[in-house]
Design brief:
Part of the signal recognition particle protein translocation system, which is composed of SRP and FtsY. SRP is a ribonucleoprotein composed of Ffh and a 4.5S RNA molecule. Its EC number is 3.6.5.4. It catalyses: GTP + H2O = GDP + phosphate + H(+). The protein has helices spanning about 1-5, 10-25, 30-40, 45-65, 70-85, 110-125, 140-155, 165-180, 195-210, 230-245, 260-270, 290-299; strands at about 100-105, 130-135, 155-160, 185, 220-225, 245-250, 275, 285. The longest helix has 19 residues, at about 45-65. It has 12 helices and 8 strands. The chain has an 8-stranded mixed sheet with strand order 3-2-4-1-5-6-7-8, sandwiched between helices. It has about 300 residues and is α/β, with parallel strands linked by helices. The chain binds guanosine-5'-diphosphate.
Length: about 300
């Protein structure tokens, strides 16, 4: 958790300092609750999660007869853990789904390609065979990046010089089935939820995958840059409505003070957070753990 704490230091610095102010008073009163509300709202938790946490803290105060404002920190932490714990569902790869197909989506720059590299390494280290589908066919550079990365790390990359994303993914799945590969990681082009034709295109990619294997894609992950804060909610809703997301990866938590957004996600569209990114290194993509996260965020 030391690494996670370091990663979330920006969020904690901001939130922690403000909370120290709120909990530094002499008594638990309405003024305190109002200040707490303001602090939570400015940490990107959003209205629904903030209201929820306040109610939970009040309940804990009356249930346990708390008098000392300092005790609220633990009460808040416990309430936050309870709220975000449903999102803690690590990605399981069942042995009978072979290949296990993971489709990655998201806007440009969210961290899809980087996360694919990290995941490929993560699974290789568990002795699983991995194949990458260079499905970002809009940017030649993205394809090149994946091919180069695959060559350096001894991972097969399926790509096409011409052809659309669906065709590349279809090819990759056939190659994986023929070789008995354990996991397919499919990259796709970055897109905004407002680019309706591109949202139709990614639905087609999913349909084509289903045609080549009924149970695929087994996992549809939206990669989100934590820096976008509350906008993450709209993105999750739009991609989930279009594709039926099964998981999220929240990246760049190391560079932002918007770590509270996870509470907002839990309250509005509770899709499992499979991994969080807290840096650029391979080790910096880690499974989401609610307790560790709350500790790292609230101190
Ligand atoms: P894509 O367009 O979605 O494929 O995004 P990329 O994978 O190319 O990532 C965009 C940038 O974000 C790159 O410079 C990555 O190194 C960086 N990045 C991705 N994940 C993280 C993270 O968790 N922390 C930090 N600090 N940078 C990240």
């Amino acid at each position: 958790t030391a690494r996670l704490k370091q990663g979330l230091s920006k969020s904690r610095d901001k939130l922690g300092k403000s909370l120290a102010g709120v909990f530094g008073g002499a008594q638990i009163d309405e003024d305190l609750y109002e200040e707490l509300e303001d602090v939570l709202l400015t940490s990107d938790m959003g209205v629904a999660a903030t209201e929820h946490l306040l109610k939970e803290v009040r309940e804990r105060v009356s249930l346990k007869g708390l008098k000392d404002p300092q005790e609220l920190r633990e009460a808040l932490k416990d309430a936050l853990v309870e709220l975000i714990e449903p999102l803690q569902q690590p990605l399981e790869i069942p042995a009978d789904a072979k290949p296990f197909v993971i489709m990655m989506t998201g806007v440009n720059g969210a961290g899809k390609t980087t996360s694919i590299g990290k995941l490929a390494t993560h699974y290789q280290r568990q002795d699983k065979s991995v194949l990458l589908a260079a499905g970002d066919t809009f940017r030649a550079a993205a394809r090149e990046q994946l091919i180069e990365w695959g060559a350096r790390n001894n991972v097969t990359v399926i790509s096409q010089a011409t052809g659309d994303s669906a065709a590349v993914c279809f090819d990759a799945m056939h190659a994986a089935q023929a070789r008995g590969t354990d996991i397919v990681l499919a990259d796709t082009a970055g897109r905004l939820p407002t680019q309706l034709h591109l949202m139709e295109e990614i639905k087609k990619v999913k349909r084509v995958m289903q045609k080549s294997m009924d149970t695929a894609p087994h996992e549809i992950i939206l990669v989100l840059d934590a820096n976008i804060g509350q906008n993450a909610i709209n993105q999750v809703i739009a991609f989930d409505d279009a594709l039926g997301l099964t998981g999220l990866i929240l990246t760049k938590l190391d560079g932002t003070a918007k770590g509270g957004v996870i509470a907002a996600l839990a309250k509005t569209r509770p899709i499992p957070i499979r991994f969080i990114g807290v840096g650029e290194g391979i080790e910096d993509l880690r499974p989401f753990n609610a307790r560790d996260y709350a500790e790292a965020l609230l101190g």
